[in-house]
């Protein structure tokens, strides 16, 4: 896979072999996935599958490929920029994304068994933009998160990958990784903000199919 130009800390452009290229042919790749896939309804807060750590992906086979296709289809139906497998009820550590970074560049990909890098203190610049989640439909809340993130894991074939995100894409990588460990963004809010988010959700009809909770 081709390498993408990145910028080092001095702002000089260089080729960095460590990070995957999830930018080239983003539109074509996203379209191919979702056209092969079938959209599935989205699980919402309260569904047990969202509130526990998912299982590691160990089989990098056709079934995983079909799951990823279905996730892209579901993400598009729900107009999301990221989707974790447990958001369509599947207990596996994989997420997909289709998200713009802080320079408006579109990133498309899938990551299995993601782990976030711990950021050194000087890279922890918090951004307190609004955040929302397809599993908390209709709700938004400000949530400070680092504006830079690196996720390491495996691709659909089991190859080791590292992905770097800035701006909203950094937020997305953190949000989706959280999902696979059983955390929603509202779990990171204060009690009062969490209550407010759930109230926003109760007051609005989801704009896409969801799985009703028992
Ligand atoms: Zn979410």
UniProtKB/TrEMBL annotation:
Enumerate the residues binding Fe cation. Answer: 133, 175, 179
The entry's keywords: Hydrolase, Iron, Metal-binding, Protein biosynthesis
Catalyses: N-terminal N-formyl-L-methionyl-[peptide] + H2O = N-terminal L-methionyl-[peptide] + formate
Extract the CDD domains matched here.
Answer: Pep_deformylase
Q: Where is the active site?
A: 176
SUPFAM superfamilies in the cross-refs: Peptide deformylase
Q: Cofactor binding mode, per the note?
A: Binds 1 Fe(2+) ion.
Per the record's keyword annotation, is Transferase included, yes or no? no
Q: Which cofactor is essential here?
A: Fe(2+)
| GO biological processes | translation
What Enzyme Commission number(s) apply to this enzyme? 3.5.1.88
Q: Where is the composition biased (Acidic residues)?
A: 18-28
Disordered as annotated region, ranges: 1-37
**KW Iron (keyword) present:** yes
Q: Which Pfam families match?
A: Pep_deformylase
UniProt-listed InterPro entries: Peptide_deformylase (IPR023635), Peptide_deformylase_sf (IPR036821)
Task: Output the Gene Ontology terms for molecular function.
Answer: metal ion binding; peptide deformylase activity
Q: Which family does it belong to?
A: Belongs to the polypeptide deformylase family.
- Give a short account of what the protein does: Removes the formyl group from the N-terminal Met of newly synthesized proteins. Requires at least a dipeptide for an efficient rate of reaction. N-terminal L-methionine is a prerequisite for activity but the enzyme has broad specificity at other positions.
Protein name listed in UniProt: Peptide deformylase
| Organism encoding this protein | Streptomyces tubercidicus
Gene name linked to the record: def4
């Amino acid at each position: 896979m081709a390498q993408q130009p990145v910028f080092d800390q001095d702002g000089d452009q260089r080729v960095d072999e460590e990070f995957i290229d999830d930018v080239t042919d983003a539109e074509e790749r996203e379209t191919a996935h979702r056209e092969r896939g079938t959209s599935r309804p989205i699980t919402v807060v309260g569904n047990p599958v969202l509130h526990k750590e998912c299982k590691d992906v160990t089989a990098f086979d056709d079934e995983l490929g079909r799951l990823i296709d279905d996730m892209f289809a579901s993400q598009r139906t729900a107009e999301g920029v990221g989707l974790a497998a447990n958001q369509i009820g599947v207990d596996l550590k994989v997420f997909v994304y289709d998200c713009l970074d802080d320079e408006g560049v579109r990133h498309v990909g899938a990551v299995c068994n993601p782990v976030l890098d711990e950021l050194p203190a000087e890279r922890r610049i918090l951004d307190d933009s609004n955040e929302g989640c397809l599993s908390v439909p209709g709700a938004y809340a400000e949530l400070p998160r680092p504006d830079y993130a690196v996720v390491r894991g495996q691709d659909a074939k089991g190859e080791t990958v590292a992905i770097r995100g800035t701006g909203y894409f950094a937020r997305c990588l953190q949000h989706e990784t959280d999902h696979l460990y059983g955390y929603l963004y509202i779990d990171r809010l204060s009690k009062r903000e969490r209550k407010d988010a759930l109230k926003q959700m109760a007051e609005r009809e989801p704009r896409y199919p969801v799985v009703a909770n028992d």
